[in-house]
Amino acid sequence: MAKRRFLSLERRLERQQTLKEDYVKFMQEYLMLGHMSRVDNFDNITPHYIIPHHCILRPQSTTTKLRVVFDASARTSTGRSLNEILMVGPTIQQDLILTLLTFRLHRYALTADISKMYRQFVVDPRDRNFQLVIWRNTVNEPLQLFQLNTVTYGMSAAPFLAIRSLTYLANAYQKEMPIGASVLSNDLYVDDLLTGADTIEELCIKVSQVTKIAANAGLQLAKWSSNHKNWVNSSDEYQILLNEDDITKTIGLAWRPPDDVFCFQYKQQESKAATKRTILSVVARIFDLLGLLSPIVIRCKILIQELWIHQLGWDDPLPSILNQSWIQIQSDLEYLNHIEVPSYVLTSSACYSQVHGFADASQRAFGCCIYIRSNHNGFYKSSLLISKSKVAPIKAVSLPRLVLCAAVLLCKTWNKIKPKVLPFINGIFFWTDSKIVLHWMKMHSSTLNCFVANRVSELQDYSRGTTWSYVPSKQNPADTVSRGCQARELKDSIWFCGPKFLSLPLAEWPKETLTTELLAKDLEQRKPTVLKCSNSGIDEHIFNKIIDDFSSFRRIVRIISYILQNTKLNVTSQTYANVVKSNNINTQEHVNSAQQNDFPELKSMLKTVMEQMSSMLNLLTTFVANTSK
Description:
This protein is α+β, with helices and mostly antiparallel strands. It has 21 helices and 20 strands.
């Protein structure tokens, strides 16, 4: 399998000489650095795995335009691949969202990456037989077998092995260089470094210690970028000189350091027939981990939901209505190139800020957004920190319930980012324009319907230390994410800076005018269970009523047994005096009692041996039981 794929790759390279030169150059570098070595006299009997390889092109990269990827997911003649057998390892790095949020809290931001990180960690020689590759520089040479000596990109365990090695370095230098060790633990995502500080002095210390720790392990930090122009560290070893148009990729986000803004790059693809496959391909290229473009992305999500509702195949043409909607969305996506979002969200780390979260819903979607409000010299600044959006279920759900789901989403989002943001704030305020939801949160969850009760219980648990208030719909920025918005309109809306009252003192914020005159059906209270109690004692008419109400004999027996066992007995009629024996009902005696109650002439009839029978008994096949009295 590996040989067949290499020969196919070789034929392709022969047709593209420029690509072949880059490929050969990459493999020669691999060999010269000792990351790959030739294998002679290989024993085929020993367990081994030969990895196929191919290349990917990255024209936008500032360093490596071509990268060779090793495909450890390729199945051999046994029907299994190396990645299927390897253990992936646990996730030991913090969530990428937290890394990006921390990056936005620094006045002076700094990015870098570890050059060839995976290839800096050596694999145990006993395991290298499972990292074999086939290679030759020209078709005139014989095929040669090489083994990869380092952690290999393309193997399922590679990320864990590399990250675990960095964690080991951070722990080893925790006492000697604590600041640098903290940066390695918290400000690194795989091989991308995103850090910063509030002063140049603190930034220099971080860079110095991180660089020393990395150098001691044979690692080199490259592609430095900062929003501080012409910044040079104390040793003049790493100088950052940026052009005005220089844009750095920060874990998928385009960051322009001179202006310290996030920008978005969208390139119109070649026109293809609109299908579910092509639409998903376009939408998947919009990387928006922080939800800064949620009002735009939610329109795409709603359209994708419509595609599934219509049960379209992957390559089926769209109905005219959906096709027209997609044309409008696609033309609007071109305006993403004009959207810029400031990276730094605070005014100063010395000034405490406030967190303001908003939740709202429409019939098609619900979402939330969180802002940071800072005070600097009497002026208030609010910036969008993070946002989340979801499409509404296909099954119709009432609007108050959807707003309740949005409130739960807001609380969960806040609790996820809370550890990083909490040191900078002194107040948490959540807002919604649904008075019903606000009223639900003040009620005991046990008095509400199951759907509402479960989510109210979550809200009451997650919202501790949080103030919930009412905000008019026009001043609720979450209304934008729940209904969607065009990219050309987003820049001039309240989305990025929040409502105007956030720039005003507390006295001018919206006042809560919550009324208690809400209908019970709106509150969705649990229906109370009504029990009818009687203290007149238990007599035969109660039992007769039970017999008339239920057609199942076994159920009648269970009900009467329960009544007689759990109430104070006051059976006044001799008819039912013998019904209770121990804790069970004597079935035969109960049948006799029921017959005597419904057929009063039965007793006299039995005495005359059925000489006279009423009209009612003529309809039945009667007989005299041996146990009758």
